[in-house]
Each structure stands twice: as structure tokens, then as C-alpha cells.
Design goal:
Radius of gyration: 14 Å
Order of helices and strands: EHEEEEEEHEH
Protein name: EVE domain-containing protein
Organism: Nocardioides malaquae
Pfam families: EVE
Number of domains: 1
Number of strands: 8
Structural class: alpha+beta
Distance between the termini: 30 Å
Domain EVE: 5-113
Largest sheet: 8 strands, mixed
Mean pLDDT: 87
CATH architecture: Roll
CATH class: Alpha Beta
Strand content: 25-35%
Low-confidence stretches: none
Number of helices: 3
Shape: globular
CATH topology: ph1033 like fold
Oligomer: single chain
CATH superfamily: ph1033 like domains
InterPro entries: EVE_domain, PUA-like_sf
């Protein structure tokens, strides 16, 4: 049964130079999705093909969800995005929905519908609790579809 995870992006830790172009590409390729590799965090056995993911922007405001999609690969190890860190776990994601990085689904709204969820993970790969997935999904659909 598919699970739902948070992948993370923090602009103070990584300079995602083609961020806006990538987010626009996701927005314009909804029917087929946009494949893009992303760091899956330190728990490689928990995430895999068929799992749903949200991309959570962390760091300075505005913070919140900026994209969603589905994992389409097993976890693969490769050089860490921060070259001094050794290896990292990555998955291919078929991103299907995105908003501008400066217009995320706000963290405050997420905390309101899912107050017990960890919305400040130290790394990607944090699983959404089963009891909050439906509420977060509806909030995201409303935000991304407006």
C-alpha cells in the first residue's frame, strides 16, 4: 500500500539554480509528469515506487509545500548534493503538481490541519502519518488548484 512522505528543500542549504524553471516544467507537464531525482533522506528502506511525496520548502519564509508527485524508482545511492557529505539516498519522482516557490501551501495551514505531524524534519523521507494524509492532500489540492 502506498505511503506518503515529505521530501525537503531549504534555500539556505542548497542553491537550486533552476528552481523556477523546474517548477514551471512541472506545472506545464501535469498529464505525464516531470521526472526529477530528489534526495530521499537517511531511511532508504521506507520509501519506494508508488509512494506519494510532497516537497516541503524549509528555511526562511515562505515555508510550506511547493510540489507533489509519485516515486517511480527504488532508492539509489550517489554523491551527496553537499559534496563534502559522502553519499546520499535518491529517488526518481514523477512530479505532477507545483506552485511557485514563493507561494507554498503555508506551514501554518499544514500545522492547523495536522498539528501532531513533524513539519520541521531534519531531512527528507519523513513519513506523513496515515491519519493526516487525506486532510493534507485536500488542502494541497485546494491551494494548487486555485
Amino acid at each position: 500500500m502506498p505511503q506518503t512522505f515529505l521530501l525537503t528543500y531549504n534555500p539556505t542549504r542548497w542553491d537550486w539554480t533552476d528552481r523556477e524553471e523546474t517548477l514551471r516544467a512541472i506545472q506545464t507537464s501535469k498529464s505525464r509528469g516531470f521526472l526529477h531525482r530528489w534526495s530521499a533522506g537517511p531511511h532508504p528502506r521506507r520509501i519506494g515506487p508508488g509512494d506519494e511525496v510532497y516537497l516541503l520548502r524549509q528555511g526562511p519564509e515562505p515555508r510550506g509545500i511547493i510540489a507533489s508527485g509519485e516515486v517511480v524508482s527504488e532508492v539509489q545511492q550517489d554523491k551527496h548534493w553537499d559534496e563534502d557529505q559522502g553519499l546520499a539516498n535518491y529517488v526518481e519522482v514523477r512530479w505532477t503538481t507545483a506552485v511557485a516557490a514563493d507561494d507554498p501551501l503555508p506551514l501554518a495551514a499544514l500545522k492547523e490541519v495536522a498539528p501532531g505531524q513533524n513539519w520541521h524534519p531534519r531531512a527528507g523521507g519523513t513519513q506523513l502519518r496515515d491519519d493526516v494524509v487525506t486532510a493534507v492532500d485536500q488542502l494541497w489540492r485546494d491551494h494548487a488548484g486555485r
